[in-house]
Structures
1.
Amino acid sequence: MKLDAKIPGGPLESKWSRYKEECKLVNPANKRKFSVIVVGTGLAGASAAATLGEMGYNVICFCYQDSARRAHSIAAQGGINAAKNYPSDGDSVHRLFYDTIKGGDFRAREANVHRLAEVSNNVIDQCVAQGVPFAREYGGLLTNRSFGGTQVSRTFYARGQTGQQLLLGAYQALSRQVALGKVKVFSRTEMLDLVVVDGYAKGIVVRDMVTGKISSYAADAVVLATGGYGNTFFLSTNARGCNAMAVWRSYKRGAGFANPCYTQIHPTCIPVSGDHQSKLTLMSESLRNDGRVWVPMKKGDKRPPNQIPENERDYYLETRYPSFGNLAPRDVTSRAAKLVCDAGRGVGATGLGVYLDFSEAIGRLGRRTIEEKYGNLFEMYERITGEDAYEVPMRIFPAIHYTMGGLWVDYNLMSTIPGLFVLGEANFSDHGANRLGASALMQGLSDGYFVLPTTIGNYFGSSKKFVPSTDAPEFKEAEERVIGRLNKLMSIKGSRTPTSFHRELGKLLWDNCGMARSEQSLKTAIKKIQVIRDEFWKNLKLVGATDELNQTLEYANRVSDYMEFAELLCKDALERRESCGGHFRVEYQTEDNEAKRDDENFAHVAVWEYKGEGKEPVRNVEPLNYEVVKMTQRSYK
Amino acid sequence: MNLNLKVWRQKNETSEGEMKSYVAKDVSPDMSFLEMLDVVNEELIMKGEDPIAFDSDCREGICGTCSMVVNGVPHGPQRGTTVCQLHMRHFKDGDSIAIEPWRAKPFPILKDLITNRQAFDRILQAGGYISVNTGNVGDANALPIAKDKADQAMDAAACIGCGACVAACKNASAMLFVSAKVGHLGFLPQGQPERDRRVWRMISQMDKEGFGNCTNTYACESVCPKRISAMFISRMNRDYAMAVAKGECNNL
């Protein structure tokens, strides 16, 4: 597998402007001759599809939801970063770039991250022009708040619903292109395979989730903006429908999969309440601006929180990380919570929880201010737990949230398959081994509004134009393959539901490849995954038929991918013999339990190459060369 | 606790549907309503029966996918709450619960509790946006917007497009949904150039889809999981009257 990142020459600060000046263009009359398939309508997909439509390309867009407006970007709460420096607190493009590189534990590609920081300001301008109702000061200007892992306030927000408002902005831009006839949206339609013709990505096979009909679409290029693979773990903050099918099946068609072991565990989620639990709900990181995290000093202290006096509380983030305090980055904060809970000082019925306490902030700012800032989050907490967080501290615990790994892409956001572009969470490029808060929205929209629309023109301008017929043998082979798989799932007629397999797999991963990983736990997990997978294909029970609306079948098909992907995730974690960001190997830690990187041997991207059914995948390497940033031990003390 | 469910079952868009009875056993008060249905469905699958099809996705009250009428009320008995955030602690042992899909002609039933809400997408496509292309817009702070205006725009923009307002309305009116978007963009200076055209086009599309008119019962507001105010409907009516008076209908 050839890994050429195609990073433009010249100084870091001018790479992107130089690229834009020198890249190939497609003239306006020719743009309408090109067609693009976009899979996914979250921030990255919707913004890309809308912008490509505005430019004159013909776009066909797919989502599994019943409407493009419902993609899971909508659930992002806290905000979106940009280097505007409106509060004049010393922010700059360079500082945002540096914070993101450092936050990612020096495992991201410099050139991509710098471009992201540059483009971030355009994203805010664009969203305001679309009518996104960001929070404002009385003077009418935009306001900012701070987020984990930074010492400036650079996060723009719309109450606790920033993702919703940004997605609606992109969805509205998309709707405008639909009305103009430049974009066609197929909802309740799921991509089941990628079609590669003569080495180029030229189409996809989809299933109509209402009728069950399998069909193919061909285009000049395919763009995947299908999100992350957090649902492999069964319980995560992802939506129920989020899945890894598009990226996993593209991997099996030849796209390299980068750093699957980089999974982010978000420190502030509502703890699990029982076996029936279907998903976990995040409480925005922005809450850590005003909430203080603590556990009792004493092991097994079961007193209600309000009866534990100040001097018997351990505000462990404030003491351990005095300069960042409660705003330490996510990976660091999650591990700190695990340490105190492992020591038997966790709270709640299960002992798997820590307090997030607002009483000090309510005393300082008044209840009204807290309500205005976080009202909807407090309400959401009350709905789920039945507790009033204005009166008693919230209980929180880490949960799988975001996946930094994804399909490998070069500077053009193109995968190892020419013509297959990957945006947003689905790619690996910008967050290294750990993502900072409010950076996912920034990346999704940067990729979709500004990066892809430029780089795809460069691709079209420098390759031969052709769109195959969907009757071509490559399409027929792919259709037969997906139909065969669906029929195989239906024909097992065993005695266990897809949920029971998924839950078993998820627990295995969480226990062995979650917040702490070791050589032994990973080897155990790999062996057990193979056992569960074998049983899945022998003992799965489904009902209904393939040619109708069949939610159990949709789900089983996704779970069948997790059964394969989970093994790659663990293999990657096993091979990365260091700790960095969200990947924590217990063998590699400093004396005070911080992640210990090995820059000499692992300052690289691991890119996995599929070699066929039953064959070992190959681990390729893209070295990370830091021209500007000096790698240091990441300290938030 | 144990609950007696009566659930609308319908095989597909063209078949007849009926209410069927199920028992939900050992329901924990910490379960969400949809998790209770998940457990019922697991049992149905094990018995070889078709599980109850229902829409849900984020399960945290923001995507607007979940949509069912619980005991006659869209999203169920708790105000300001989507059914995915409704928890079983609001029910008691032995309760009977009727579960039905949204019922409105513009939202045809696809299966069981799942409806087709694409009519909402088409209304948005008719004009629910600000016509601005990507790139080369001014600096975000070049246009100050009074905080109260921005806040009111946000109040309206909070709509999740679930369709509960339509399901609750005896006329199957979509006025609350449409007025939320008209209000969101109408409060902002960026939305002014297209204000007349937008309201006229969106309402025309709403009528074309077969949604009914508003007769001021406020049923929509009372079931809205985001508590969107019916005040936006009055505002939209004023905008519409202005658009008609200015002859917007003649321009299209």
Note: The radius of gyration of chain A is 24 Å.
2.
Amino acid sequence: MAFFLEVLTGGLLTGVLYSLVALGFVLIFKASGVFNFAQGAMVLFAALFFVGFIDLGVPVVLSAILTIAVMILLAYLIERLVLSHLVNQEAISLFMATIGISYFLDGFGQTIWGSDIRRLDIGLPQDAFVFGASVLGDDIFVNELDVVAAVVAGALVAVLAVFFSKTKIGRALRAVADDHQAAMSVGIPLRSIWMIVWAVAGIVGLVAGIMWGAKLGVQFSLSLVALKALPVLILGGFTSVPGAIVGGLMIGAGEKLAEVYLGPVIGGAIEDWFAYMLAMIFLLFRPQGLFGEKIIERI
Amino acid sequence: MREFNETLLSVENISLSFGAVKALTNISFEIKKGEVLAIIGPNGAGKTSMLNVINGFYHPQEGVITFRGEKRRQMKPYDAARQGIARTFQNVALFKGMSTLDNIMTGRNLKMKSNILSAAFYLGPAKREEIEHRAVVEEIIDFLEIQAIRKTPVGRLPYGLQKRVELGRALAAEPDLLLLDEPMAGMNLEEKQDMSRFILDVNDQFGTTIALIEHDMGVVMDISDRVVVLDYGRKLADGTPDEVKNNQEVIEAYLGVGH
């Protein structure tokens, strides 16, 4: 029992990290109806700048502020140079544009900071600690970093959920996603909305980058973590902030449990494909995801 | 017969083309403050293009638009909205995933002042403002008699109600000039009567100037003070419903020329 709980907790906490990446996708999808292929690259890009500043001897807090400034500038440039030319175009054109942005960011970030693996040590705890003293006589070990990540993710989600559902800007973001022209007709400035949402996605990317970077080191493979966010989005729904969290938890817990309990039966390495399998099954039965907006089409 | 003297908006010699296709040729007319103006014409006459020019979606190659005494070559959608021009669309352009309430709230966008920081954390001022504007939106919902669908995602509503919600969103901006693109298309008789009543009430109670495109001649003749007729991107006639009804050119445009 204690072992099961330990696996479950470990899985859930990894899931939180998936959620952090998925959150960035949801933000941009919600606000522009575009699947942002570059989200993973943005995570890497932010983490590279952050760790780069720290290695130059800049204090941690200042590095974070500088990186946020970089991400806001990046959002401005993306809006200016790419998106503003694509107003009212098909979503697929915008998607293609984000693929381009993704390759550019991967290359540019590494041109500036190099492609070595960088250790990110900002004093986040790395040790496992004993949790809940004992369950049925056994200790449960939990990774402290994962707990920190969970708390951070929880706080981010709470803020974003309120922001989207209760405020003028949140509503404007959703309006832009639904209909560009109608949004413009009620006086929503499309360009600043896009800039805001890309900046917020960049900041969420930074948070994800810091957490993943502390775990794996800052390296190119961070940009591939984004692939794990795909099944999370399919489970949770592309348009739901809470969905990104629940989806992440399900994927995280599911793949760890599957690895430990199914692994010995049907062979190992289940962890690598379990998430995608789960997503596929989900697509069959609930294509809009758990919390996504139901697709309504009038004929 | 109502009299209107003050000009709210005028277009002079507007020409708009897309490549070789001429959508509008040399069009001039005025919209008087307080009136209900109908723009009519056969399909493809350039009616929607004209509305798009007025609210800045299209930028005409030639001509001048004067709004509230200020001359300009073209409008921009954001400026048009800010200066009090609201509109609805031919094919209902609502935010489908959002509720009726939220759709109408977006219409208040320009009236709300809270900035991104206070909004991000839903701080006191942002919250107070939200409640204030919510009250205005509730009044609009009462006015349009759509209380029952307040929380329904608009994508699920029947077409007639969607049109009504769209009108609500435009009204939420408290516009001086309201542009309605076929507000009654696809409606049954009862829905058309309701919509006519709402349009007249808006004009009457709030003094809103209305320019509308409509195909149903019965409705046009009933509710409009003045009618502008377009055909093939040119203006055929401009006058009271009675004058237009008896204009030979208009009759020919609608019924074809007798030989």
Note: The longest strand of chain B covers residues 7-18.
3.
Amino acid sequence: MITRFSFFQWMVFGLLLVLGFGLFHTQVVRGHYYYELSLRNHIRLIPLEAPRGQVFDQKRRLLATNRPSYNVVAIPEDVTPEVYPRLSKLLQMSEKELRQRMSAGREYPFAPAMIKADVPQELAFKVEERRPELPGVSIRVDGIRHYPYGETASHVIGYIGAISRHEYDSLPRDRFGMNSTIGRAGIERVFDDVLRGWRGGEQIEVNARGELVKVLSNRKPEPGSDVTLTLDLEFQKRIMEMIKGLHASVAVLDLETEGLLALASAPAYDPNIFVSPSANEQRLALLKVQDSPLLDRSLHAAYPPGSVFKLVTALAGLETGKITPQTRFVCRGTFRLGPKAKVAHCWFAEGHGSINLYEALERSCNVYFFNVAKRLSPDDIARYAHELGLGEPLRLEIANLAPGFIPDSAWKKSRFKQPWYQGETMNMAIGQGYVQVTPFEILRLTSIIAKDGRIVVPHLVSQDPAIKVERSHVAIHEQNLNAIKRGMLQVVESDYGTGQLARVDFDKLAGKTGTAQAPPLKAHSWMTGFFPYKNPKLAFVVFVEHGGSGGITSARLVKQMLETWKDLNATAIA
Amino acid sequence: MLRRLLKGIHFPLVFSVLGLAAVGLLFIYSASFRDAGDYEAKQLFWIILGLVVLIGVPFIGYRSFLSISFLFYILTLILLVLVDFFGNRHLGAQRWLEFGPVAIQPSEFAKLGALLAVVNFLGSHHPWEGQTKTVSIAVLLLAIPFFLIVKQPDLGTALLFIPMSIVMLYLWGVRKRFLVGVFGALALAVPVTWGFLKGYQKKRLLVFLDPNLDPLGSGYTALQAKIAVGSGGLWGKGYLSGTQSQLHFVPEHHTDFIFCVIGEEWGFLGSLLVLCLYGFLFHSIFLIMQHTTDVKAKMLCGGVLALFAAHILINVGMTFGLMPIAGVPLPLVSYGGSSFLMNCMALGLVLSVYRERSIF
């Protein structure tokens, strides 16, 4: 009888026997074949890099694509000594540099080493012609990243760069090779995994002279997937032209799809210089420039919001019941908290007289909002600022952290070990002092107002399923939002309005201007709003660093932007 | 003193360990003498430490190990979870934990931890009592480390749990229908595990079925390993003069692919020598198993044996295309401290079974 024990014993020795037979077959029966193959190792593995996915705008126009590039590569094991002088003359590289390139780290033996990337076509042909006297050297045509519109949407698309040795070691081989690139900023970075394909390769048998005998196996690379953005390239391009030379940013959101139509920041940079190895100096120059063109001013730079913040103060006053839209305060051009307090000024020295909330928004009266703030605590204002998305995470595909900041009394206490002074509430109410916001946060705030309190999550990639929000509406009453909307309408459409320069003749616009003091330089210029007033389609924010008055610099840009938008959409329909 | 220490040691087993360790040392040197790293010196240190463990464990006795097995089991699980958080990434996998200069591989410890815990658990329940509950708990005990290791991802090591589990249950006396059940559960687990696998692991398995699928990754390695072993022929190319392994065609040739170096430089005869040493080791373990009446001891030895056999099957099998490419060391031969110490500890437990054998 076979016991369990003896069955186990048989299994184990049977297994060793199987291994023995397998090895006998491989080593003794087929040994000669493998010995032949091993002689000069006749197997070459030629990696085939997968083309990176493309980036389109909403109308399928190419924002990032690949162009063919000619690379001079060599298999160092096949290169003979007389190749070096010939190649060095041809490529105008020193022999020393050539040797360095040849001995640089490679993925496996007999892998081709990159000698010179992206050479001109004529040179590539010349090398190809002379191949018989250059054993081991060949020309490989690879795809190289190309951004056809240069700086137009550079901050959104971002750029790519070569991977580091450390990254190479920690990443899977079938996706990253030693000469692979990886997204370093923007969409290229965040969607790298989507855009990146799977590498392929060709295993070939060669003869003693390194010539192809037969292809043993072949795996085609799988190209990366494409990404389609919500941006409208033409719109973005015209906006970039408008703000050329300024330090400014413009963001426009389609309120129906919640997709960003334009996200422009100036100055910008040409992402192509990150691709081409010959553009080293330009890259370094970019980092040294004072205006930091790499910075996306709409997402990553925070500024005092100035009068734009009055929207928040007004909502806080309404929601806490401290004011109604009809509450009147008298503005005589100055304001004092108490008899001994410092005098604060309205921007309009003669004073606005007795005005209600609508008029106060329309004329951006500081004194009115000082009076509102007097009835509020800083924490009230902070609460509604957060409710409207200020100082909260961004949740845009390419950025999560917003550098915006909303102060409150607890923060002041822990930061400065001082109580909050009422005077600081005055400052906060008109968007000065510690308050810092990014233009993008203001865009989101305006969108929430425009959509009657619906929480808007702007996005950039159209196939991305909408980001789940925990709740659909902010905790603010709709009638209060409507009061704010009416005030914003008057900002543009009333003849006393601070934003009337933005008025367009084809529909009603609602907005709010801001002129944030930034001594010692000129003030920052803001304007945000939505369009048209009824059934809004667009929300936008325009910001010009040290641009002066919001009602002038930004309002003019808004008008231009809206006219462009109408232009583009009219032609689209026709 | 020395006589007392060596009394009750099963010398054939120690002899085969020494033989395998010596072959390992020779070929770790051959595989790495051109590179910096002094692997052979480090391995010598591990071997000496391992031998101390091998001789020392029988003095503590396997019963003490079994009594703290659950503690040890929990500890290895914690290490496995830690590796998920703090582990070192290498080629997309997280397998190592660094403690100062020493990097340990928790999955090595987890194998022994699970083995001891299951032996202790099953041994405390008689197979004639209701089996359903006992078997389910034992399978659960094995499944937890299994999935943690799959998640790392280290598929090769995780797969080693399967033969070990089956052998332990089998020797315990599990009913045939449960064994069928376990196989059925495994068949069900395959699609689930497939979902857990990283893209490159799926590809590795597919490459095993069709080596032409992935010339870039493991298909290339598989072919190069085969060329290395096959080109050794009957006699081999001679010690230190293999061309394939020396030229780095085969990756990690001092660890997982050391058998390629042996096969290439010492040929079929060298391969046979290694297999015979393992055969001798297994034979010794079987002898020890025959001499014990303790069911726990039997399962313990069986589990250790199954673990060794599975390692060898995968490691040697992958060099000539019988098995997919997996990062599994060749026990007692491959370079690596965690692995060598754990193997010595496992065999120390087997020696302890011999020392405490029933004498008729």
Note: Chain B has a mean pLDDT of 83.
4.
Amino acid sequence: MIKKTLVAAVAAALTFSAAQAFAQSRSQIRIVGSSTVFPFSTAVAEQFGRTTNFKTPVVESTGSGGGLKLFCAGVGVGHPDITNSSRRIKISEFEKCTKVGITITEVKIGFDGIVLANSKSSPPLVLTKKQIYQALAKEVPMGGKMVPNPYQKWSDIDPSLPNAKIEVLGPPPTSGTRDAFVELAMEGGAKGFDGLEALRKADKKAFKAAAHAIREDGAYVEAGENDNLIVQKLEANPNAIGIFGFSFLDQNADKIQGALIGGVEPSFENIAAGEYGISRSMYFYVKKEHVGVIPGIAEYVAEFTSEKASGEEGYLTDKGLIPLPAAERKTVRSGAMKLAPLTM
Amino acid sequence: MTDVIAPGPARKTDLSAKRLKRRYAAEARFRAYGLLAILAAVAVLGLLLSSVVIRGYTAFTQTEIAFEIHFDQEVIDPEGSRDPATLAQGDYQLLVKRALYELFPEVTKRREKRRLAGLVSSGAGFTLRAMVTDDADLIGRRQKVWVKSSDDVDSFVKGFIDRDLPAADRRIKDDEIAWIDALANRGDVATRFNSTFFTTGDSREPEQAGILGAAVGSFLTLVVTLLLSFPLGVLAAVYLEEFAPKNRWTDLIEVNINNLAAVPSIIFGLLGLAVFLNFMGLPRSAPLVGGMVLALMTLPTVIIAARAAFASVPPSIREAALGIGASKLQTVTHHVLPLALPGVLTGTIIGMARALGETAPLLLIGMVAFVVDIPGSLSDPATVLPVQIYIWVDSPERAFVAKTGAAIMVLLAFLIAMNALAVVLRKRFERRW
């Protein structure tokens, strides 16, 4: 008897699933993409769901690259409508997208600073990009050639730095934060060496390989994507330095402090003014073909770009977003509202 | 061996007493080791649970602030139409802000006002909206209302922010502390049971975030998993154990099933992505697909456990049934299956418990997502409890640490409930011979 009902239930479940396959509509927006933009995107989604009659969009955190891959897979309800990205779309991704007939609208939402921070129980650090490169590169130039990184202590690099072991907790290679850190801080530091600068002019690829390689002898610890965990580890170990997004520094200002990079403190104002050296722009991309098919996309874009959300006093700044300058915000908003197609 | 010179009989008893003593000592040591092992396990478990509880229990309460709200008709319903659509659109947060400005008239600067308004949750307006939707007569009146505080104020009132720290290091500044103290002196700050946590879905604001969405998602997913994996697993096990001939093919199948039980779960997620989403076109993030993927994952566990249970039924019972003229099918359904049921159920529950804690395969089919609405059907976007824990632990807001602990407690409660069910079912069906 029990078995009969179970069999019937399974049959019912299977028919149900088959019926689902034919359901060709979707009533809520689907968003994928960067884990860095995730906190902002979800905040807007929630606000949007509460204040309008549309359903709350579903936001997945897939990483920038993974998001663009899903986004560019095609047009239709099975594919996401919007993807978040903590870097600009690459030409290759753009071509892939246009090939399947997708018209993309790019919306720049603001900046995110990457900070190097340590526990408040030790003195604040003052670093330059060059020193960061020397501390973390796999090979550093010394006496005209590249040698495996010999520095064990910060004071080995520069006597003004603390006499403590180099111990940096940072994101793994799969992370967008790591990409941006390597591009902005490590490359920036590598350029400071004449030999490497000459290499950059001669052979871009070789320069990138030299500048992007992070040491693997234990001084750089891949601490995973969980930035809260890094904060806890920093608290426990006053010599350790962590690398993460500005919003985590902002939320944990009582426990950790950001290192000055090139004499500039990682503060809201400095990042917004573009003075802090390690900051990047964040974007989201909208699939124009879905506007009007999936309800609410235009309204979601309007909400995201409104002053109420991403303006200087908007609720996203409470979440750690660093807004664009006022004039740029205006251009971005008008472009987004018109759904101006992206060209590359 | 020094006392060999001792007289015969005495030596004998002496030696045996010594040997006996050694054996007793060895036994006592062995028992101590065992006890030690258990104590170590209990201590680690206690440490784990207490760290979760200590971190998480504060999430079950929420600081609320009371003040008199003027339900101004001008703001809510300027035309006086009492039309529900108009009422839903009103700027209720403005009412809260006005009430606060009224309470502290000395606050005039824009930044200070912003901070003052930040004392209460950005969801406070929704509380007022719900009140007005319930009772439109409130419009135009003044009434004292309790609303949730913001997460920072909540942390401060619960003592997680030290007021002796320098102001720059605190998320709550001096003037905010003064306002909270002023409200507290009037008895208008209270910490109450946080029912929101059990009745809503996820939110970006810690004070508005709830676990119900994820719990419902987990439940729907597990229902699908159970409905698929239990009958399929039991039927496969019955066939393999009772009917199938012993040959190279069944051996091959058996080896494969054993291997499948050890395959990392993310592989099943990849399979689900390729087959259920891309080929069959089922919706992303749906509990239906999640349940199907987890069913694939639990199936080998169920089959192995069920086969072991069937094998442990004494052959004499089968022979007796066959001997009095039962058919093979009758033997299985009337005798072997009922006797093996407790073992089958245990295996199924173990598989389900593993499925409950899984996140990796769900990542690939889009269930690691921010979902606010509570899923109402198998095809609605949903997330599950362990994913909710993961999302919260990764959020920058400090108050989510407590939410994470609380969510872990809910997950454990879910697990204990499932195991309790298993024990009850086992006791009911257990038979001795």
Note: The beta strands of chain B are 61-70, 142-148, 189-193, 369-370.
